[in-house]
Amino acid sequence: MDLPKSQKELLENLETLIEQTFVVEKEFKELKNILNGVIEFLPQALWVIDENEEIIIKNSKADKFDFIPKEGEIEYKEKFFLIQSSNIKNKKIISATDITEQKRNERLIAMGQMAAHLAHEIRNPIASLNIFLSLLQKNCKEEEILDEMKSSILRVERIIKSTLLFSKGVNIRKKEFLLQNLFKELKKTIKYYQHTKDIEFIFTKQNPKLYADYDLLLLVFQNLIFNAIDSIEESEIKKGIIKIIYENNSFKILDNGNDFENKNILFEPFKSTKTKGHGLGLALSKEIINKHNGEINLCKKEKGFIIKLTNK
Predict the structure, then answer these.
(1) How far apart are CA 254 and CA 256, in angstroms?
(2) pTM to 2 decimals?
(3) pLDDT in tens, 260-285
(4) Which domains are present in the chain?
(5) Which of 92, 128, 218, 226 holds its CA 20 to 30 A away from the CA of 77?
């Protein structure tokens, strides 16, 4: 049976309306997915809550929190966050931005400034002690005592140098030199580094020409070898072995001492896993090697470090 024209038009309009509703619903779902994708893409943790403090929307970063934080700076699970909020009608948007790195840098700057000030204050008395020690060596026969004094002074001097370099920044001055010349100087400093165990030092026989900052590279090798000595001293082994292997412009500094306790903080400044550490040796070594456009990393199979240098 044919419907009246008015009813036909009504049905057609109704069908069109239903079709448009499906289209709008589809577009709404797409927009909702896009919005959820944007919220998820944000680097901050994000919550949208209603007037009853009920969560309407949140991203996966917000799932890491056991609560909805209030405005300001908070410390949570060993990280720092800046909490901000804004209101849109009866909804509140809350964001939590991870500022751990920023707080860490602020702390490092403050610690660096303080350490640099202390290093300057200590430098002059240490220089005077060195002069008096040189005078004593001419007249005193107690060589063992003098060696201990020299060792202690060299240790303080190394800490001062590392601290000042770290606070001022590393500037390299490259020159060409033979590796074995660097090793000669290195062996002199090892002689004055105190250790009670018998340690065999094995240096590569190769003697390539290096193009690098002689003094800074010497400091890197000192830091790594002294760390190796300390790990052997703290271990239960009776005889230690420290090797420096050279191959294809790369160095391996290996030892048979205790393994690293926390590999994640090895290159973090002012953090040390050693009882004798001041927490700057490895951080500074990494900065020096980076300035040479090289790399320093842990060896994968052996206990120690690998340094890759370039001749550029």
Answers:
(1) 7
(2) 0.54
(3) 877 877 777 666 655 555 567 788 88
(4) 20-98 (3.30.450.20), 101-169 (1.10.287), 172-312 (3.30.565.10)
(5) 92
